[in-house]
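Lecture 7, part 2: worked example. A protein chain together with zinc ion.
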Amino acid sequence: MNTDGAVTVTPIVVADLLVEGEVMPVCVHVIDHPDGRVLVDTGMTELHPAVVAAFNPRLYPLNERDFDVAGVDMVVNTHLHADHCGGNHLFAGRPIYVQRRELDDAHHEDDYTLREWVDAPDLQYVPVDGELELLPGVRLVPAPGHTRGSQVVVVETGGRPVVICGDTAVWFGELDEPRTEGQRRVLALDPGEVWLSHVYEPWRPSVAHIDDHGPTDAREGRDRSTN
Ligand SMILES: [Zn+2]
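Predicted complex, written out as structure tokens:
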């Protein structure tokens, strides 16, 4: 448990997907908060023919690496597509927060997800209707678009919030030019960083959006420094 009072968000790559010849990571995110450790999405822990056919994934599951599964106090699913809930079974007995609409759709819509992963034994879903403060300064916000029941996690860190957005945006361009209600809602939060499930680095607003002096684009600067 984190005791210094700082709230941190850490990405963990749990799989690589092959999509149209390009490698796309599957990231989950850990929020360390003085009151508990939250895991946002759970990736996948095993291959399933439907997933292999779609993505030919390579897995680095949470339970097969240096990750303290037992140290997670609660889980959030941004949504219940298979690449986001395939590790839920590791967290039986701990609360798993998901929007009620998402849980209903996963149970009733055809070809939505792998239902046996959603309904692994002894999972304790907490269906959420709308916004919910999970811990002080950590809240769930509905963000319909990618799915009707998608939600994002907003983490207050002292400055502008950090948002963990799941697939509300799958690539940066979807935040640069938002189209869905969920994407617009994320931007309306005025985030300093937005973590996406399928990109290694967080999206950040360009400096030009923050103030008007200086031509430097924050994201270009970051991309150069990390290449
Ligand atoms: Zn996804």
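The radius of gyration is 17 Å. The first strand starts at residue 8 and ends at 19. Keep this in mind for problem set question 3.
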